[in-house]
Amino acid sequence: MSLPEATELLTDSYGRTVRSLRMSITDRCNLNCIYCHNEGHIGHSKEMSVDTIVDIVKVGSRFGINRLKISGGEPLLRKDLEEALVRLPDMRDVSMTTNAVLLKDRASSLKDAGLDRVNISLDSLDPGKYHTITNCGKGTFDKVLDGIHEAVDVGLTPVKLNMVLLKDLNDNEIKDMLDFTRGYGGDVILQLIELMDFRDLPQYRIDANEVERSLMSVSSDVKVRELHKRKKYIINGAEVEFVRPVDNTEFCANCNRLRVTADGKLKPCLLVSDNMVDVSEASIEELPDLFRLAVSRRIPFCKS
Ligand SMILES: Nc1nc2c(ncn2[C@@H]2O[C@H](COP(=O)(O)OP(=O)(O)OP(=O)(O)O)[C@@H](O)[C@H]2O)c(=O)[nH]1
Ligand SMILES: C[S@@+](CC[C@H](N)C(=O)[O-])C[C@H]1O[C@@H](n2cnc3c(N)ncnc32)[C@H](O)[C@@H]1O
Ligand code: SF4
Ligand code: SF4
Where, in this chain's numbering, is [4Fe-4S] cluster 2 bound (predicted)? Predict the structure, then answer.
């Protein structure tokens, strides 16, 4: 089989070496958030099989890709996720981003199958606001809290709580959310996210510079991650990461992720849809060249 030499890395023409795969495994979802970007793609053909998922990750890992993020839609709608996880090659970090509605009953089996950690979307601690944002059914908010609790209990840690900041809706809750994470010691950390406004919701756009200034004014230390050069603020012992994807040249210049859509396409950029490489029918022997092709099409969305 013509798998790449383990020493070959995938570096694009902007010098960005791909280190991480962000894989959507379904476009289906059990919530309907007002701002959802659907990972920049809704496929109309069928979802990748477990075999295809495993082959893509195997080939990626031969290219030195050592991190995998599983996303969706809502990834927990796939009942065969554990089956895929146990068949993956060894990686440095396998994580999933989920709304956690279905997490409580799956957390333990996911951990056993090899999942390292989860990010959980929780935009508000107020059940009424949570409902407004997610259009969820009755009882959903409590299920999410149970999911967070269970994730911590089984060791899917650190659990990152994703909070998309929405002006005049939840942007006054940062302190409460921080207090909530502190209740879990270091096991839960807060991740604030600037809204990428795909749905024409100008009333919810926040001033990210202002948020950054206020985080800075109360933090005792700031760290910078390699991925996207994201900043992490230490505030009274708690960690807060701020994801600023909008009009941010530094963010895109430090993007080391290749995306995979739920219907099996390599997607060079979240925000570009006309340069994807279809691998849904590819054999494992054909995959390396298709990876090289996708990476050759990577362009920073935002550049100076
Ligand atoms: N524009 C853009 N947004 C991204 C990218 N990667 C993640 N995001 C956004 O960042 C936010 C957090 O995403 P998560 O799925 O929790 O994952 P993550 O924080 O990137 O990954 P980890 O920090 O490794 O857990 C979401 O709003 C994503 O849409 C990217 O490459 N480009
Ligand atoms: C698309 S969701 C998929 C995983 C899962 N359904 C969930 O909500 O966690 C992945 C992450 O993207 C975030 N997200 C979705 N739409 C966004 C937008 N327009 N701007 C910023 N983040 C967004 C969500 O809050 C979530 O944390
Ligand atoms: S739960 Fe996730 S995928 Fe579903 S609508 Fe909300 S952000 Fe989108
Ligand atoms: S180039 Fe920028 S917008 Fe595109 S995926 Fe990377 S960070 Fe996101």
Answer: 252, 255, 269
CA 300 to centroid of ligand 4, rounded, Å:
6
Give the closest residue (by CA) to ligand 1 atom 30: 270
136 annotated to bind ligand:
no
In 3D, which of 301, 177, 176, 181 has the Cα closest to residue 246? 301
Q: Is the ipTM of this complex over 0.90?
A: yes
Residue ID of nearest Cα to ligand 1 atom 3: 245
Q: Which residues of 13-47 are buried (b: 16+ CB within 10 A; e: fewer)?
A: eeebebbbbbbbbbbebbbebebebbbbbebeeeb
Q: How far is CA 11 from CA 96, 155, 265, 284, 293, in A?
A: 25, 34, 19, 21, 11
Residue entry with tokens 């992720």: 257
- Whether omega for the bond prior to residue 60 falls within 30 degrees of 0, making it cis, is no
Residue 164, helix vs strand vs coil: strand
Give the pLDDT band of residue 169 (cuts 50, 70, 90).
Answer: very high
- Which mutation among 28, 29, 33, 271 tests ligand 2's pocket best, with the greatest number of atoms within 8 A of CB? 33
Please report which ligand is nearest the Cα atom of 78.
Answer: 2
Phi, psi values for residue 221, rounded to 5°: -160, 150
CA of residue 255 to ligand 4 center, whole Å: 6
Task: Give the chain's domains with CATH numbers.
Answer: 20-296 (3.20.20.70)
Q: Is 14 in the pocket of ligand 2 (CB under 6 A)?
A: no
DSSP conformational letter for 302: S
| Residue 225 CA to ligand 4 centre (angstroms) | 16
| Digit-coded pLDDT (tens) for 105-126 | 999 999 999 999 999 999 999 9
**The pTM of the whole model exceeds 0.95:** yes
